[in-house]
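Consortium newsletter contribution from the modelling node. Members have asked for a concrete example of what our holo predictions look like. Here is one, prepared for the flavin-adenine dinucleotide complex that several groups have been discussing at recent meetings.
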Amino acid sequence: MVTTKIKFEADADGAVVNHQPTSGNNAVTSVIKQSLDAKACEDLIAAIQSSDSFLDNNERNQTRGQVFFPLTDGFEKARMSVWNYDAAGMPLAIIKCANANHVSLAITFARKNAVKVCVHTAGAHSSHAVVNNCVVIDLSLMRDVHVNPEGRTATVAGGAMIGDVDKATKPHGLALPMGHVHHTGVAGMALNATSGVGYLCRTRNLTVTYLKGATLVMADGNVTHISEKHNSELLWAIRGAGSNFGVAIEMVFSLTRVAPKVYAGDLVKFGKGTGPGKLTCCCCINSKETREELVMKWFQFFDAKDTPIECSSLLVIAPHGPVISRLCYAPVEKDALKPANDIKKEAQEAFAPLADFGFTLMNTTKMMDYWDGVQKMGEFSPSYYYQKAANMSAIPEDNLLSMIDELCSYAESCPVTNMGSGIIVMPLGGKLETLEPGSIPTAEVYSQMKWWFIVITEFPRGPKDPEVRAKCVQWVRDVYKVVEPYASKDEGRQKDYWSDVLGDIYGSKENIAKLQYLKAKYDGDNFFSWNRNILPKKSDKE
Ligand SMILES: Cc1cc2nc3c(=O)[nH]c(=O)nc-3n(C[C@H](O)[C@H](O)[C@H](O)COP(=O)(O)OP(=O)(O)OC[C@H]3O[C@@H](n4cnc5c(N)ncnc54)[C@H](O)[C@@H]3O)c2cc1C
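And here is the predicted structure:
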């Protein structure tokens, strides 16, 4: 129980380091000008405790809420319950919410103390999950997913992860197309700009195109239901920009049918003179082709007009290591019930140009379950990371050559070699090209962009080895510069947002104006600002 005013030293750093603890786990020594009102803290604890007897109408969620303040038991554990420890800031309070009422209490508490909130799911993959000086609305207790197989919808709690949805939809042969990594949060992925790209998006579109409704706790603490019939202007806005408008307690998604078994796995190849093949005794395990040629082949394959949209992939250029083509062939919905052997044959034929090019040291491709196979191929354990991402337009062939040369040469200079570091590219296109401009806030970008790019490093010792950390951050920034000329531009954003997608994700001026207007209407004082932020603006004259 907090009985005194909580005070911390201030630090006045800029955007990038603003929410980085200055001394690693001992972050209590860092930051914070504000102090919390002790009475408000006690009231909050009492209100959360008493509201635990409050249950949702259907009494679904009976978990208890929890409140943590700095220096109290459980605070440090709750603070570090994020995917990227390097981005864990020093908040004023962490409120683990179990229902809408808790979220509302957290908002009221933050307003009373004149501080901002940040929000995170159980995934907590973003750099805004736990922010300095904020009240954290931690939704990790809220992970329920309910599937209506007849209506083909899933109602997903605000804190759920991709894997929670896959687990619930699998028994019905249904799926929600989402990201590649099962431990990413659904709300963060769908509502905060990236909109959800993954193995199914080339055949089925972005996750947000499946969003049919949501229940949000708004900036005034009130609960609002959003659907095509109610607050439909907000339904448009939350499909990609939702975290600007409220805290989603629940989201309702439609679902798609997926084949029980799809074709997926990795092709692992070493380019000539790289990896173990640098040694003469091991050169037989390498391709005759160079790493640059292997990478070029992958780009050409996904650039070709006749490559089926069922083919998806992640290309990984591993630092000091192989070129990995992680493949997935999942039929379009109408072909979901095709015999598995037919799907396998189609997939092998389709991917043959990639499989047959260069020497494949390891080939793990096979027919596998979508939900527990494909969706579990990507695993990045919580650690210390730095990453930058971009949506890239089509790259002219000449520029592509030099871009690939540069990326491959950076792969040889990466300061670390581990499974959490690499240069990763995925092909967009397919169904995404059919997105109608303005249909969702992110439609323009995803209909025009050709590649999704991430460069990431893991430095497991974090602040204990500041030199390695600095080298990793610099390496990521250097690699990023190689692709920056092709990244969608974003004049409004901060120069070096810690780890978000660069590019004006909200597309056209019209979209941005509409979002700014809605932001002014529903969150005029920009209370929800730790997100891919939209500044409130009523009209151009203001
Ligand atoms: C390893 C890794 C892999 C990734 N792979 C993919 C991928 O394949 N496809 C893809 O599209 N993206 C991918 N991303 C990007 C990812 O979608 C974003 O980083 C996303 O913001 C993470 O969501 P989260 O819920 O885990 O993060 P969180 O930190 O929990 O949330 C991110 C932000 O979303 C908002 N938010 C969270 N919950 C709510 C809520 N209930 N209501 C309102 N706002 C909320 C908040 O503003 C919060 O700051 C990946 C990121 C990482 C780090």
